[in-house]
Specification:
The chain is of the alpha+beta class. It has a four-stranded mixed β-sheet with strand order 1-4-2-3. Helix 3 packs antiparallel against helix 4 and helix 5 packs antiparallel against helix 6. Bound molecules: copper (II) ion. Copper (II) ion binds next to helix 6.
């Protein structure tokens, strides 16, 4: 079964990413661990695997946020919900310390919205050290927050947005990594290699 799912994963990563996330939407529904084969089949279409690329400003303003996000990601990769909770708490604190006033006035409103959403997701992760599936739901949304954030603020390192089509009963999910190597934080040891780089985020 595991091998079949792995092969399906390989087929599906070529399908690419399209799911967009609404900042106002907080995922609290239960995760479905069983995959529906008919759904898998219908999504196995041939599409380009070439990642898009964007360039962002070089900035140290979000170093603590990125570092703690990546620590959180690594904890979920190894299925360690306690470590993820600790990293979520540190991330929550780092987001709280971000100086919105240091950014240009026209972007402050959007930044505040993004940071508020990110903080809420980080808080839920920190408070659910015994519920890794729940942490992963918030982590998936958080990835979009962090991506939206660095598009505005810039980043201190190159990052990759990675997409796994199998997450959340084939809804798919994304995360950010500082490496192209696929280590899946959304499915962990169940599907460590599932995913493909959909966007390369490099510094100007
Ligand atoms: Cu929650």
């Amino acid at each position: 079964m595991k091998k079949t799912i792995f092969l399906l994963c390989l087929a599906l990563v070529s399908w690419g990413a399209s799911a967009q996330h609404d900042h106002s939407k907080m995922g609290h529904s239960d995760m479905h661990s069983d995959m529906k084969k008919s759904e898998m089949h219908s999504k196995t279409k041939d599409k380009s695997t070439v990642p898009t690329s964007i360039k962002v400003e070089h900035s140290q303003s979000v170093t603590a946020i990125i570092a703690n996000y990546l620590a959180l990601k690594d904890a979920l990769v190894v299925d360690n919900s306690k470590k993820a909770a600790d990293a979520g708490k540190k991330l929550f604190d780092a987001i709280g310390k971000f100086d919105v006033a240091s950014q240009s006035g026209s972007q402050q409103k959007e930044l505040k919205d993004i940071l508020e959403d990110a903080k809420e997701n980080a808080e839920h992760i920190s408070e659910n050290g015994d519920k890794i599936d729940h942490q992963r739901e918030h982590f998936e949304i958080l990835g979009t927050d962090i991506k939206d954030l660095i598009v505005i603020t810039g980043a201190d390192r190159n990052l990759y947005q990675i997409y796994c089509p199998m997450y959340n009963s084939m809804e798919g999910g994304k995360w950010l990594s500082d490496s192209k190597e696929i280590k899946n934080p959304l499915l962990g040891s169940k599907m460590m290699k599932c995913g493909s780089v959909v966007q390369e985020i490099s510094l100007k």
